[in-house]
Every structure is written in C-alpha cells, then in structure tokens.
Amino acid sequence: MPLAPVTLIGHLVRLEPLAPEHLDGLVDAVHDGRMWDRWYTSIPHPDDMAAEIERRIALQRTGEMLPFTAVRQADDQVLGMTTYYDIDASVPRLEIGYTWNRETAHGTGTNAESKLLLLRHAFETLDCECVGLRTQWVNHQSRAAIERLGAKQDGVLRANRRYRNGALLDAVLFSILRAEWPAVRANLEHRLRHRVPAPATL
C-alpha cells in the first residue's frame, strides 16, 4: 500500500496532505459552529489545533495515519480534516475517520465528495479489500451519513473508550467491501451530480 501523501481533487473539494501551513484555516474552520463544543466528539479546541496537526503528522511518519485537510475548490476556504488510519497492509484495509468540517459546509456536498475521493483512492489505487468507518452510538447525524454512503453496519463496540467528560463510549462500526464499491460509487456520483457545476457553453 503506497501510503505516500497525495492530493485528491474533486469538483467541490480537494484533499491536501495535512501541513502546519493549514493551521490558521483550520482554526477558522473549527470556530464556524464552535465545532469542538460537542461532548460526544473529539474535535480539537482552537487552542489545541497546532498540537493536533503535529500529532497527526507524527502518526503519518510512523505509517499509522495519512491525514488530509479539506479545502473548498470554489474559494480555497479550509473546511476541516479527515484521515486514513488503522492501516493494515496485510489485507489490505484501512479506515476513514477523525473527520470534521466547518458547520456552514454541512449539507453542501463537500463531505460526500471527500468520501468519494477517499474511497476511490482506497479501492482503485491502494487496492483495498475493505474500508471501515466508525462513529459514536449517540452521534445520530454521523451514523445516518455513513449509512447514506452505502456502508453496512458490522456491529457495536460497547464501552469501547471514554468521552472527554468521562462517560463510556459505544462505537458503531461500518464497512464497505471491494465488491460493494461499484454500487457505493454509483450512489455517491448520483448524489453529487446536481452539485457539480455545469460546463461553460460558448
């Protein structure tokens, strides 16, 4: 699995390798909707953003993660972060997660296209057999979004770890297999069709 940093480009969004230069844009993005102020997520506080960027880059150096910054194509505004992680080259498989986007980008198609770019790269370039996604049991918005992708629920890991407030977390696991990818890709492309700018005519 050649997990070298790569830029994935779509019509609405591009995913750039996470870099310290993204700090100001990510701090601005996390302020949009106070994204850190949700007890059931691990979205970094603005004051912790620099440390989170370094943490993810350090995990990239050890081959444990490949982090991206999501940038809107129309105006180069930084939207948030996402990653490949839990990478197992022996299968091969990986998970997509640690994802968040500024609140005003929700419902605009940028997250769906980000998932399309990440899944396409995983299945068609990295030759993955399986791509996993997970979220928290109480995060109904995230669970619904993963189900809309066409991922199937594998199960629930109860009392998997703790939230920041000390409450026990139940993790919901989903996955997409290589054989399911063509249908998932068609579904995502259909959902995004009306959001792609029409080509200019002379």
UniProtKB/TrEMBL annotation:
InterPro entries to which the protein is assigned, alphabetical? Acyl_CoA_acyltransferase (IPR016181), GNAT_dom (IPR000182)
Outline the extent of the N-acetyltransferase domain. Answer: 13-179
Q: Which domain of life is it from?
A: Bacteria
Q: Which GO terms describe its molecular function?
A: acyltransferase activity, transferring groups other than amino-acyl groups
PROSITE patterns (UniProt xref): GNAT
Q: Which UniProt keywords apply?
A: Transferase
One Pfam family this sequence matches: Acetyltransf_3
- Protein name, entry field: Amino acid acetyltransferase
Source organism (scientific name): Luteipulveratus halotolerans
Highest classification ranks of the organism: Bacteria, Bacillati, Actinomycetota, Actinomycetes, Micrococcales
